[in-house]
Amino acid sequence: MLKKASSVLAMVIAMSASGMAAAADEVTYQLDWLPGGDKAPVYTGIQQGFFAAEDLEVSIASGRGSTDAITKIATGQADIGSADIGALMAARAQDTVPVSAVYMIFNQGPHAFFSLSDSGINNFADIAGKKVATSPFTSSNAFLPLVLQANDMPADAVTLTKSDPGALGPMLVTGNTDAIIAWVTNIALFKQQAASAGKDINVIRWSDAGLSLYSSAVVASDKFLSERPDVAKRFMRAYDKSVRFTHENPEKAAADLHTMVPEVDAAVATAQIGDSMPLTFNEISEADGLGTMTPERIATTWKWVAEANELSVDSLDPETIVNRDFMPAAE
Amino acid sequence: MSQTPTEAAARRALLLNLSPWLFFVGLIILWELVCRVFSLPNYVLPAPTAIFSAFFDVEFSRWMMHLWATLRVALMGFALSIVVSIPLAIAMMRSEFLSRTLYPLLVVIQSTPVVAVAPLIIVMMGSDDPSRVLITCLLTFFPLVVSTATGINETPEELIELSRSLDAPTRRETWQIRIPYAIPHIFSGLKVAITLAIIGAVVAEFVAAEEGLGYFIQFSTSFFKIPQAFAGLFFLAGVSLLLFKSVQWTQQIFFAWSLPKKK
Amino acid sequence: MEHKSERAFVRMVGVGHRYDPTPGSPMAVQNIDLDINRHEFVAVVGPSGCGKSTLLRMVSGLLVPSEGEVSVFGKKVNGPRDDVGIVFQKPTLLPWLSVRKNVLFPLKHKFGRYGAQDEKRANELLAMAGLEAFADKMPDELSGGMQQRVGIVRALLLNPDILLMDEPFSALDAMTREQIGFDLLKIWDEQPKTVLFITHSISEAVLLADRVLVMSKRPGSVLDLIDINLPRPRSTKTINDPRFSELTDRIRKHIYEPDAH
């Protein structure tokens, strides 16, 4: 009787296992913020069938910041996703977080000063002594004193006020502040806002002022990488393809995003893609290869991150957070 | 002025019924005027007409999808908190031990900002409906426990004596006297709880969600679509008002005796 | 004292009570000896806080005296007993039940159900109290006096031997109060009960009762037990009887000049 039952059980298991093999592998991709043009590749990958071609079924979860995304990936609510590599480094330096970086999306930091074109603030040196508004929780705040010092200014060279992210644009346009700190991925949105008041915006990138670091990366849970390495490899192959596709077809990628998230305007998404692609495709990617994380730049990034978060540089060997086994082979 | 007193009274009653609407419409007109006269840009304060047209720019089916997501969580959280609070209040009334043990804990839970706890709940329970329902429930159950307990304790002593003199089982004392007596208080609690349920659902959506009116508002703000965010906000306020009214109607239809007497 | 019979219906012997059980703590009432006959109407008057309600609760069994003994028809009272009907100062009707259902509430509450016979009895009792037209109304549609009458009818439902009334008319206005007093006597006449009636009103006590128990201020004890030998049926004319003012004066002296005798 027992034998019979166990053989039935074995059959059921065998059947369900074969059933699973036939279905596509499911992967949950965790965004570090709400959907937007800068997150277009994963959406276009789904719409263009790049993931399906690798026999993957990808679902996307929105996030509320890099720390949130890393936590959700670490706790297994998602397998893989995007997050700031600096946030991952800071987390790994203070705790054992089973998440590793596998692919570099933005090989430059997105941090920048935005000012009105007629404000006379045209390059980094002009910011000294000015009023600058920033949102309270952006990672840019920690880098501000460092980038000021790198440009021979004291850490308190600007008068900083903190304000809701949504209020920054209006503050700039109405002249409540001389400049704001924002990300280059949102240039189009801020320009649009300024244009409605008949103004234009200058963007002063911190990456041009010496802040040389990696930022947004594809990060994955170590469990996902060790238990389903083949799925992870296939995912990264399709993801890499999606990034390239987005670069070459921003309008199509934006349309794909709009299809999946109707609240995102295709035109706005196209502009956001235009703003964020230079962080992915640039002289660094030309030299090192798309998605690549070089040990030198990882080390430099960690130096900035450690200093910004007031951590000892020795508290982490930054190479340990990187896993290069899942880099798609260069085409 | 040859008005009969009844005519005057009828006019007064009509005015009293219309006054909230008139006030609201007046406020909207004033708002529109302020926006036009000072030509305020949308990102400072969108004009009602801009909000109105933003509302119709969003497809109806999307509105319904977001509405359903929020309503689902709010109502499930509300229902859960009724199921938890009322038995809890009864148990606490029955046992001094329970009430002494649990009250401090309830106060601690109530004074912990749900916004701070919400991310932890999401981390522990995942970012699906159950965690959002729990977040909603955390926000709504305290006023319900307090109002139910207050109502139960305000049962006239004479009726308890009547029950005891009849030597009736405690179960019937609870169901036939104490709980019905608590109904007016329970409804005050329900009215507070239903509006908190919407807030709870929105807080949960701010932390983790792919749909819902709170998510929609957050999303609109992140794209600087301020009129659209306002449209979402008004929609949410309308839903909240409707739910509040539904609780009131429920009381009027099924528990008319529990309403304060007019005159 | 021809009322002192061997077979007193309610008997209190050396009854005293303290709410704080510590020995030596103040007594609420003490040294009460009282016999009440079957179907006798006894009113209790005394200053506020003299323990009148305590006395009533000890007869109902809601309170067990810390000294002495209360017995009803020879059986010691040591817990709530269901052969008493209680009427409170406030009508304390259940606002979610109709008048008829309020009257039937003791049955519903004690046994969980009632039958057609019970409804018939409720209707009869309501008719007797002149409330048949209001049976399906909700309590808040009734005046205070009518509500209190419903309270009395409710207390009569289980046909108790003893009716305990704790200042039942004190929340009513003077005119209603007088009328409902006579109504009570009419009901009592039709459905004889042993009544213990607590009141603040000396004239009400004299007007209604067979005997009036006058209590001292706290700790309450018996100051006087007065036979009211006024003829029945009583009516507004009773008040004009010279003995009426004699009796009320006698009680008033106890209350206002407690040391005068």
UniProtKB/TrEMBL annotation, chain A:
Gene3D superfamilies the record matches: Periplasmic binding protein-like II (3.40.190.10)
GO biological process: thiamine biosynthetic process
Signal peptide from the UniProt entry: none
Transmembrane segments: none
Record-annotated SsuA/THI5-like domain positions: 40-253
Record-linked SUPFAM superfamilies: Periplasmic binding protein-like II
InterPro entries per UniProt: NMT1/THI5, SsuA/THI5
Protein name: SsuA/THI5-like domain-containing protein
Organism: marine sediment metagenome
Automatic annotation (TrEMBL), chain B:
Organism: marine sediment metagenome
The protein's name: ABC transmembrane type-1 domain-containing protein
Membrane topology designation: Multi-pass membrane protein
Main subcellular localisation: membrane
Keyword annotations from UniProtKB, A to Z: Cell membrane, Membrane, Transmembrane, Transmembrane helix, Transport
SUPFAM superfamilies to which the protein is assigned, alphabetical: MetI-like
Gene3D superfamilies: MetI-like (1.10.3720.10)
PROSITE patterns: ABC_TM1
Domain ABC transmembrane type-1: 67-245
TrEMBL record, chain C:
Entry keyword annotation includes Metal-binding: no
MF annotations from Gene Ontology: ATP binding; ATP hydrolysis activity
Domain (ABC transporter): residue spans on this chain: 10-242
Keywords: ATP-binding, Nucleotide-binding, Transport
Alphabetical list of Gene3D superfamilies matching this protein: P-loop containing nucleotide triphosphate hydrolases
InterPro entries: AAA+_ATPase, ABC_transporter-like_ATP-bd, ABC_transporter-like_CS, ABC_transporter_ATP-bind, P-loop_NTPase
Protein name: ABC transporter domain-containing protein
